[in-house]
Amino acid sequence: MSEPYPTALGTSDAESIHLLGQDLAADLMGTVGFGELSFWLVARRRPSSGEVRVLESVLVALADHGFTPTAIAARLTYLSAPDSLQGALAAGLLGGGSRFLGVTEDAGRFLADALAAHEQPWPTDEAGWDAAALDLVRRTREAGRYLPGLGHPVHKVLDPRTPRLFAIAEEEGLLGPHLRLYAAVGRVHEQVLGRRLPLNGAGVCGAALADLGLPIDLLRGFALLARAAGLLGQLAEEMRRPVARAIYDDVEHRAQYVPLEPEPRPTRGE
User: Which fold has domain 103-215?
Assistant: First the structure.
């Protein structure tokens, strides 16, 4: 007889389905929200109401941001293969990387690494956090690395999601070290970079998720979970009011042939 395959998630038999040790139909359906369930599945503990509010605020913040590359990819894939909704949705999700959506994980990891390397006790006031953040920004700049979560291609002065998420976390008593350090980075980075950049909403989402104790390696997953809902909305709108054909036609009509330039031939000895 082969060894069993252990799982603490879902199992089923002919009469019932169990999830997280609960009866799915009797205990969870109609009782547990989807955001709460996603937290529970990952953290293996049921979140508090405050944690649910913060998490769902993050999911709402990341659901959609207009005609981003992820939305355009989903719409164009649907234009090409209208028989494959799953392909169009997947195409949009595959675009969630270091430039779009991935900053949620990048910022969370950056802050978590900085806090883990902080040898002294965490600061207890804003001045202490500012000093820690200033040292972090300086060391990051000296190492030639960029600061994830600073700047936004659309919101040049203020990302409206940022102050709202800070306020929600504070209201719920969940303004933890990741968010506090991130806020301090926002206050002091101009002293090192020489210019002021807004704290990116996706970055503050990563800080908030890290403060909830969710695994850093899975933070991008929550961004993708949120964007899946947004992409579904994009595809629903594409069905009702299509724009993918116009996007395709515009690019096609603007295409201009440019002769290939010959590559330089290597000289002897190279």
Answer: Cytochrome p450-Terp; domain 2 (1.10.230)
